[in-house]
Amino acid sequence: MTDPSATADVTDRPSGAAESVVPQRVREFLDSTETPCLVVDLAVVRRNHGALRSALPDARICYAVKANPAPEVVGALAALGASFDVASPGEIDLCLAQGAGPERISYGNTIKKRRDIAHAYERGVRLFVTDSEPDLVNIAEVAPGAQVFCRILVDNKGSRTPFGRKFGCPPETAVRLLRQARELGLDPYGVSFHIGSQQLDPAAWEHGISAARQVFEGLAGHGIALRMVNLGGGLPGSYTEAAPPLAEYARRIEQSLDRHFGADRPDLLVEPGRQIVADAGVLRSEVVLVTPSAADDRRWVYLDVGRYNGLAETEGEAITYRLRTSRDGDPCGPVVLAGPTCDGDDVIYQRNVYELPLTLRGGDWVDLLSAGAYTASYSSVCFNGIAPLATYCVDGDERA
Ligand SMILES: *Cc1c(COP(=O)(O)O)cnc(C)c1O
């Protein structure tokens, strides 16, 4: 799958600097628990939510629950007044149980069964995404009168984990679907797009906002006034490859909104997943073995976490986590990093060359930083008899 000969150097090597990144209370907790596990600092979740609220003060924040569905995370955000982007009945029930009313829930998955829509509607959810006629017809039938927005397909260039073509329709189709929504008795509310997750180009939203404007104009021609633009997710976490500051994303998004909507500003939604939780999490793993390899001049370091119990986003080495180890400060050399299972694809990094301490051996720990998003929620249940990645939340000095 990955080409080991095409090596790239990871410039932000693990170093003592990472030490200061992990707060004392999280370090203490990590040292007291079994590996592998994810520790999420709720204080950082709140701080990230606050930072986004300051950066985009006009946008309603709908946390994308799939990034980290720990009930404590959802509860902390619900207490701050956040809204939620959900993908299934399970996520709806989770948000309701954590104190978010149904008026704060947006059903943001274009792929849903009729009975999933009915489940949402029965619980009071009135906001649904769509991008196809069969889904729209289902919504009209089992969620009569609901607000709908249409997801359009946008270029995901600049994203480290693009969506491909699975979701969204062309703007012309959005115009047709939202007209049909009106005919079916629904409330055509607006347009959404997702510019691709871990989007490193703050100018990427320009395409989506411009295409959204096209849909607004298309519908205005039919006497329908849309009112909402959903900016989706894509805001970054902190991995080895530096991302621009949040303020730069906000500035470029505001510029695009001014350019395409001027004084006619629609309601704004934003659906952060990664930006809220990535930097709040540290994943502690243990070194199982360190072996020299005959076919390669690099040592192989096998961790007790890999592709199937938390590191799904290392597929294709899309996400390159920053590391710290219990032997930081000792001389380092290049390694191939791999997971613990009997699957040949369970190699974490071979194209990206990480350098780890030469003294590293079985029983030592390796922390993956900014691992709060798309780790525990992507963990398999029991592949090779390995339990799903456990999540613990700490909150200041309290432990949940
Ligand atoms: C996953 C998802 C998000 C969150 O994306 P991030 O890049 O993590 O911010 C937002 N909206 C929708 C519809 C999603 O599926």
UniProtKB/TrEMBL annotation:
Its EC number is 4.1.1.17. It catalyses: L-ornithine + H(+) = putrescine + CO2. Pathway: Amine and polyamine biosynthesis; putrescine biosynthesis via L-ornithine pathway; putrescine from L-ornithine: step 1/1. It comes from the Bacteria. The keyword Lyase applies. Residues 43-278 form the Orn/DAP/Arg decarboxylase 2 N-terminal domain. Its cofactor is pyridoxal 5'-phosphate. Transmembrane segments: none annotated. The keyword DNA repair does not apply. Keywords: Decarboxylase, Lyase, Pyridoxal phosphate. Belongs to the Orn/Lys/Arg decarboxylase class-II family. This is ornithine decarboxylase. It comes from Saccharopolyspora taberi. The lineage of its organism: Bacteria, Bacillati, Actinomycetota, Actinomycetes, Pseudonocardiales.
